[in-house]
Every structure is written in C-alpha cells, then in structure tokens.
Design goal:
mainly beta; 2 domains; five-stranded antiparallel β-sheet; elongated; Immunoglobulin-like
Length: 144
Amino acid sequence: MKTTFTKKTLKAILAFGISTSLFYGQPVSAAGKPFKSYSLPSEEPEEDKPAKKNKLKAKTFASLNNSSVKIYPDVIKREMHVVAKDNDGKEIDFFVFDTEGTLQHHYKMKPKDHNKMTGLARGKYVYRVFSGDEETANGHFEIR
C-alpha cells in the first residue's frame, strides 16, 4: 500500500519530527523496511501518468563481440550460434551456465568452428571462454 502526502502534511510531519528530535536515523515504515523516497503529488498532471512502454524489446545479449568468440541469436528457433575466432590458432573451451550455476553446455572449439546451442529454456545464461587455463572472455545472454 502506497501512502501519499500533500506538501502541507509532509512539511508539518517533518517540522514536528525535527523540533521534537524524533528523526535520528532513516525513517522506517510499519513493515520495518526503510523508505526509499517520499512521494509528493506532482504539480503537472503529465508526471502522474505511467511511462509509455517501448515497443522494441531489450537486447537479448550483451558484450558478445569479443576477441575469442562471436555469439548471435536465432530468434525463430530459440537457438544461439557460437563462432570461435582466430585465437592465435589455439583451441578454446566455451562453457554456458544457467543463473543457478549449473553447466548447460561445454564446447571445445578450434579456430573458425561454429556451434548451435539448442535445447535452452527461456531465461538468462552466463558464458565463459577459456584458452588453456586463462579466461579470455565472459558475458551473458537471454533466451526469450
């Protein structure tokens, strides 16, 4: 339940609290959680309206163009494509984990190899790329 105060009421409450030294720390609500901010009614009616949602979906992947691998989605089939880059001619290990840390896929890839990650459920995933014992890239992506 969100409680809103008018400016006049809020000023009166704050003046009373300051004059009686009731406010020593951060104010706490009845549920025992700290207040994030006080909400005052706005002067302009436009601010009270909810923001329009952007029709474009957010990116489904982040930091995918790195020096070790290239990752891109196949939105129709809910697959992710992984292409190993040159990597100085070395073989890389590509790991995919879910948000709980469970290993979902592991690929050993030579330079220019291409793999399709299939069978991934909707959700967020983290990937890590190793060349020998050294981590060369990491990032995350989301299957929608």
